[in-house]
């Protein structure tokens, strides 16, 4: 929930309403828990506004079927809010033919190509690019290109990117950056991740 | 998503499975965005496990009808996951009679009394105590009592508490603490909160 008032009002020629409704680029980074969960919490708000939501999960393994996926699919199908499209790299992006056998690097790039196509077509109003900081950090996807494409995206499309080690130039370009800082985690006390909490 | 392995395995007489499934007390604090959204993202995972979820919104105003409320109610009613019960202080807790006219302090305490009753009865498996750090910080609810009740709660009940200025003794008692640190927020650039993003 927003606290208080803006500290300054910029001389940008926009009305308060125009400025308020500017599409945002948001980044959740840091080593603490809550980066992805907060992004999916944001997707609930978008869904509730009737916005089309596109999720791109840039994860390596298909082992992880997160609870958010089921939940958002049920919401998308309920007919009460916006639509939800869920793309997952782990199982091979649905639009990529099975016989292509992409390695992780090529798969990450292929995901980004689809994001670009969707942005150009204004397919969604909120994009959750989950764990997308990693392929940028690893150099699999060109960060300069990502920043340029996101800066020049048409219309009113919000984007949230999660993952550790988000590149500095992405943070520079972002409107909102939260660093999820770990103060304490059960793993430090020898407790492994558990269902319902970690996925 | 959990990264890696525990750094040490405690000599607590528990099996890995027992330790893994210990109920957690989680706190999302700090001045950055994402404390509540991450808590509601967690609720999606709990719902997906079929767990009963109880939400207690400790907010002062009834103005805020957050998107998460609609979304979780649709999910709870879908019959596909767990149940969802949503309690809201802003409109007056539903179990409190309208003619009681509680002030904010009394209302916060009344919310906590209900949390205690539900914990004792093991009503839910995940409790989202949204913005509950504030009444503790303000001294409206006794933090020592909260810590004691949460430490001694029966069964397998996970609790997540959000809000700035979470008291130190709560953090000490917690299994997981994330500080949502603000790196950048649109309000710093004179942009007010917008629907779909902030609520």
UniProtKB/TrEMBL annotation, chains A, B:
It is an enzyme of class 2 (transferase). NCBIfam families: cobA (TIGR00708), PRK05986.1 (NF004637). It comes from Streptomyces laculatispora. This is Cob(I)yrinic acid a,c-diamide adenosyltransferase. Keywords: Transferase. The gene is cobO. GO terms for molecular function: corrinoid adenosyltransferase activity. Residues 1-20 are annotated as: Disordered. Pfam families: CobA_CobO_BtuR. InterPro entries: CblAdoTrfase_CobA (IPR003724), P-loop_NTPase (IPR027417). Its EC number is 2.5.1.17.
């Amino acid at each position: 929930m927003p606290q208080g008032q803006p500290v300054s009002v910029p001389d940008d020629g926009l009305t308060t309403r125009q400025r308020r409704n500017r599409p945002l680029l948001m980044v959740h980074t840091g080593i603490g828990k809550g980066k992805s969960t907060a992004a999916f919490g944001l997707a609930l708000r978008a869904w509730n506004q009737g916005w089309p939501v596109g999720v791109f999960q840039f994860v390596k393994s298909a082992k992880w079927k997160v609870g958010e996926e089921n939940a958002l699919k049920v919401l998308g199908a309920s007919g009460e809010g916006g639509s939800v499209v869920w793309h997952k790299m782990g199982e091979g992006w649905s639009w990529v033919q099975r016989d292509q056998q992409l390695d992780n690097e090529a798969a990450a790039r292929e995901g980004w190509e689809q994001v670009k196509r969707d942005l150009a077509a204004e397919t969604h109003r909120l994009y959750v690019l989950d764990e997308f900081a990693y392929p940028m950090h690893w150099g699999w996807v060109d960060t300069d290109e990502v920043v340029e494409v996101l800066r020049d995206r048409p219309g009113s499309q919000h984007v949230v990117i999660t993952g550790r080690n988000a590149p500095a130039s992405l943070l520079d370009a972002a409107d909102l950056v939260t660093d999820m800082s770990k103060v304490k985690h059960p793993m430090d006390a020898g407790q492994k991740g558990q269902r319902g909490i970690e996925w």
